[in-house]
Amino acid sequence: MSSSKVTIKDIAKSLGISIATVSRALNGSPEIHPDTRERVLSVAKALHYKPNVQARNLLKRRNNMIGVVVPEFITFFFPEIIIGIQEVVNEEGYQVLICQSNESSDLERKNIEMLEASMVEGLIVSVTKESKNIDLYERLIEEQMPIVFVNRVFPQLHANQVIIDDRKWAFKAVEHLIKCGYKRIAHLAGNEHLSITKERLHGYLDALQTYHVPVQESLIMYVGVQQDRAKIGVDYLLSLKEKPDAIFAVNDPIATGCVLELKRRGFSIPEDIAVVGFSESPIGKILGLTSVSQPTFEMGRIAARTLLNQMRNYAIPVETITLDAKLNIRSSSLPLKKKH
Amino acid sequence: MSSSKVTIKDIAKSLGISIATVSRALNGSPEIHPDTRERVLSVAKALHYKPNVQARNLLKRRNNMIGVVVPEFITFFFPEIIIGIQEVVNEEGYQVLICQSNESSDLERKNIEMLEASMVEGLIVSVTKESKNIDLYERLIEEQMPIVFVNRVFPQLHANQVIIDDRKWAFKAVEHLIKCGYKRIAHLAGNEHLSITKERLHGYLDALQTYHVPVQESLIMYVGVQQDRAKIGVDYLLSLKEKPDAIFAVNDPIATGCVLELKRRGFSIPEDIAVVGFSESPIGKILGLTSVSQPTFEMGRIAARTLLNQMRNYAIPVETITLDAKLNIRSSSLPLKKKH
DNA sequence: CTGAAAGCGCTAACAT
DNA sequence: ATGTTAGCGCTTTCAG
Question: Do A93 and A171 share a structural domain?
Answer without folding.
Answer: no
